[in-house]
Specification:
Bound molecules: shikimate-3-phosphate
Helix content: 25-40%
Radius of gyration: 21 Å
Strand order of the largest sheet: 2-15-17-16
CATH topology of the largest domain: UDP-n-acetylglucosamine1-carboxyvinyl-transferase, Chain
Shape: globular
Largest sheet: 4 strands, mixed
CATH class of the largest domain: Alpha Beta
CATH architecture of the largest domain: Alpha-beta prism
Structural class: alpha/beta
């Protein structure tokens, strides 16, 4: 579906509550499926990716009840398979577009006989799975192909623990190994080159499994075997979705918006530090924590005269999904913004590094990707363009903001990709007074 987004001529104003956090929604559903007993999950993101995880755990034998709830979220009741383990379905499990579903499930299924076959859409079938299957195989699981892409068939059983030095800062890799460690006798430990999002480390203890952590070496571990116990989770708002609303407000003159109930986990909100360095007026108002995660409201005011910044590689894991939208904002700042160590963007839902450079060029912005470094020259105005989402939700929303905050309409092809993480994106913009489809001139 093509979506034309027109320049916004009046400020964005008001309060909005973004949908539930995608990473936490996946984990809450999956951990509840692993647990003994029935968990009640509230505020779960209603999106294609999370529905892939819900359908997967249901196919594997968890009893799930899904009820649409306030604000477009889902209430999900999950009676887990617990110590009985997952039951191999007679059909492949379709992970859709969701890398988190596929990689976390590979970790879970590694500890059971199976066989289990995972498939995914075209984009997911291009993404590397060896980063989880190779270390999981050293624990005793078997995968066909051993180091390849979906479809993958997994089979395993009780595993051996490992201490693994991950070459990538990836929460998906870390979580897959920790979940496999629940089926190993002894300590399974993962060390990362930089700290990736730590939702698993925070949420597993709520389900009754202690997670050890050593900040100095960026290591975490579980002592297996261990079984989870049901727990009720309320999922807070997704900071990655909030980042799109925030950048929308920063691009549209005169805007002032409040984004309520956003998860403020430090391993997720690196974009706030970047916005601050760029001179953006963003205020964080902490609220009472929701379960294992800090939460608060963000107030964002349009700020003229933003300045370029450098995002060092250490900061990247905390804003990995926000690079496309930060690159768009950087195009409006004074000076050249550098994003260092962003090679991982090449293996996301699309090759985001190439897509950012090409998309910005189409809008009239100069950007370069050299090795793992992305540079965006600022002080640009966005011109008319037709850009494909490449079936990548974060690109669909980034290019929509180029239209909303630019000088000319932008057409986004295959805009329906937003269903993956933020189906109500345009509705939330409209609630703030935007007329993304063009204002009616009286
Ligand atoms: C996620 C981890 C990140 C992130 C993805 C969600 C997660 O991927 O980009 O959107 O929920 O664990 P990597 O683990 O591959 O960095």
């Amino acid at each position: 579906m093509d979506q034309v987004i027109h320049p916004q001529v009046t400020p964005l104003a008001g309060r909005v509550r973004v949908p539930g956090d995608k990473s936490l929604s996946h984990r809450a559903v999956l951990f509840a499926a692993l647990a003994e007993g029935t968990s009640h999950l509230a505020g779960v993101l209603d999106s294609a990716d999370v529905r892939s995880t819900i359908a997967a755990v249901t196919a594997l034998g968890a009893a799930t009840r899904v009820t649409p709830a306030a604000g477009g979220s889902l209430s999900v009741t999950v009676a887990g398979w617990g110590a009985r383990g997952p039951v191999p379905p007679s059909f492949p499990i379709d992970c859709g577009n969701s890398g988190t579903t596929a990689r976390l499930l590979l970790g879970v299924l590694a500890g059971w006989p199976g066989p289990f076959t995972l498939t995914g859409d075209e984009s997911l079938s291009r993404r590397p799975m060896g980063r989880v299957t190779v270390p999981l195989a050293t624990m005793g699981a078997a995968f066909t192909p051993a180091d390849g892409t979906l479809p993958i068939t997994a089979s395993g059983g009780p595993l051996h623990p490992i201490a693994y030095d991950s070459p990538v800062a990836s929460a998906q890799v870390k979580t897959a190994l920790l979940l496999a460690g629940l089926r190993a006798e002894g300590r399974t430990l993962v060390r990362e080159p930089a700290l990736s999002r730590d939702h698993t480390e925070r949420l597993l203890p709520a389900f009754g499994v202690a997670v050890g952590r050593d900040e100095a070496t960026r290591a975490c571990w579980v002592d297996g075997p261990a079984t989870l116990v049901a727990y009720d989770v309320t999922v807070p708002g997704d900071p990655s979705s909030a980042a799109f609303i925030a950048v929308g407000a920063l691009l549209v003159e005169g805007s002032e918006v409040v984004i309520e109930g956003v998860a403020l986990n430090p391993t997720r909100v690196g974009f706030l530090a970047v916005l601050e360095r760029m001179g953006a007026q963003v205020t964080v108002t902490p609220a009472a924590a929701e379960g294992s995660e800090p939460v608060g409201d963000l107030t964002v005011r349009h700020t003229p005269g933003l300045i370029a910044t450098t995002v060092p590689a250490e900061e990247v894991p905390s804003l990995i999904d926000e690079v496309p939208v930060l690159a768009l904002l950087a195009a409006r700042a004074e000076g050249t913004t550098r994003f260092e160590g962003v090679g991982e963007l090449r293996v996301k839902e699309s090759d985001r590094l190439a897509a950012i450079v090409e998309g910005l060029a189409a809008l009239g912005v100069t950007a370069r990707a050299t090795g793992d470094v992305l540079e965006v020259d600022g002080a640009a105005e966005f011109g008319a363009a037709t850009l494909s989402s490449l079936d990548d939700h974060r690109l669909a929303m980034t290019w929509a903001l180029a239209g909303l905050g630019g000088a000319a309409p932008v057409t986004i092809e295959r805009f329906e990709a937003v269903e993956v993480s933020y189906p109500r994106f345009l509705d939330d913009l409209r609630a703030l007074g935007a007329a993304p489809g063009g204002a009616t001139v009286l």
